[in-house]
């Protein structure tokens, strides 16, 4: 790749008159050796999987094997559809993000963006906005390339793994990727998209990874729902002209600093946070008991 930082990415786009998605497609093709059309078709297939996961999460039984989670996406969608929600399109994004995350928890097929633990945020944001604004699959696929470019920068300068940097690395990265890509999808400049990333990431700094029972269910799934809403807000701020006073590349460096300083118990070990509450411990013991019974059968 010819860029390693977001400011370099924005400058390349400005110099060459390309969107982030267009530039990333060209860069990916050059790196892989595959024609751009091949790379585009592959990404389009990924988007189809995302849309299918949204549909499945809203129409099928997504009760997880543990029995802890499932069907909340359908509850939120019904509530939002009844006209009682305060959120509007954000309610759709939330429901869709929950849907994909519940499909993941119930062993369904998803696309890790950038991880399975944060798989609902980009589909939730993309599919809800595609429906609202009547955008084409082709347009959304370019958006995925834009999200990929942002994720590439974050991964190479900080973390995208909860085990390394806490949930700020998983959910936070996905929110930043979704926000920047959405800003571009809605007509924003590369510079505005980059500001959206910084605005989004600043709102998730320090978020710990504390999976109850060691499962990617609680609080992971609801964080995907909230994350989708945050991404929408960050994109709208950037499109309205709000700038990230701290440059986005510097925010990414802070994510690295904070994640590195985070105690191990708050980095996907289930050794702290919600996982170690009385209820969290009780859930873990119940899971262990069920596993022991299955092992004897």
TrEMBL record:
Which Gene Ontology molecular-function terms are recorded?
4 iron, 4 sulfur cluster binding; L-serine ammonia-lyase activity; metal ion binding
Stated EC number for the protein is 4.3.1.17
**In Gene Ontology terms, what is a biological process of this protein?**
gluconeogenesis
- EC class name: lyase
Q: Which cofactor does it need?
A: [4Fe-4S] cluster
Q: Which UniProt keywords apply?
A: 4Fe-4S, Gluconeogenesis, Iron, Iron-sulfur, Lyase, Metal-binding
Catalysed reaction(s) here are: L-serine = pyruvate + NH4(+)
Show where the Serine dehydratase-like alpha subunit domain sits.
Answer: 16-275
Q: In which pathway does it act?
A: Carbohydrate biosynthesis; gluconeogenesis
Q: Which family does it belong to?
A: Belongs to the iron-sulfur dependent L-serine dehydratase family.
Instruction: Please report the name of this protein according to its UniProt entry.
Output: L-serine dehydratase
Q: Which organism is it from?
A: Paenibacillus soyae
């Amino acid at each position: 790749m010819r860029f390693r930082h977001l400011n370099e990415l924005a400058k390349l786009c400005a110099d060459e008159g390309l969107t982030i998605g267009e530039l990333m497609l060209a860069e990916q093709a050059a790196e892989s050796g595959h024609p751009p059309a091949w790379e585009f078709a592959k990404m389009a297939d990924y988007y189809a999987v995302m849309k299918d996961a949204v549909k499945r999460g809203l129409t099928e039984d997504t009760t997880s094997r543990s029995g802890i989670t499932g069907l909340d996406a359908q509850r939120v969608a019904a509530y939002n559809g009844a006209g009682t929600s305060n959120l509007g399109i954000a309610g759709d994004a939330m429901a869709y993000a929950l849907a994909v995350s519940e499909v993941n928890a119930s062993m369904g097929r998803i696309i890790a963006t950038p991880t399975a633990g944060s798989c609902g945020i980009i589909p939730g944001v993309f599919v809800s906005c595609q429906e609202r604004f009547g955008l084409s699959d082709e347009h959304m696929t370019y958006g995925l390339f834009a999200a990929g470019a942002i994720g590439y920068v974050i991964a190479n300068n900080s973390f995208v793994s909860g085990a390394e940097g806490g949930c700020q690395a998983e959910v936070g990265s996905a929110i930043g990727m979704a926000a920047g890509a959405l800003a571009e999808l809605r007509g924003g400049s590369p510079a505005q998209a980059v500001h959206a990333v910084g605005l989004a990431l600043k709102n998730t700094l320090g978020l710990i990874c504390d999976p109850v029972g060691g499962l990617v269910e609680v609080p992971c799934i609801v964080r995907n729902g909230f994350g989708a809403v945050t991404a929408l807000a960050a994109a709208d701020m950037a499109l309205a002209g709000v700038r990230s006073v701290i440059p986005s590349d510097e925010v990414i460096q802070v994510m690295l600093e904070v994640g590195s300083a985070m105690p191990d118990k708050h980095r996907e070990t289930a050794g702290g946070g919600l996982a170690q509450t009385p209820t969290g411990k009780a859930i873990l013991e119940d899971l262990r008991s069920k596993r022991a019974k299955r092992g004897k059968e």
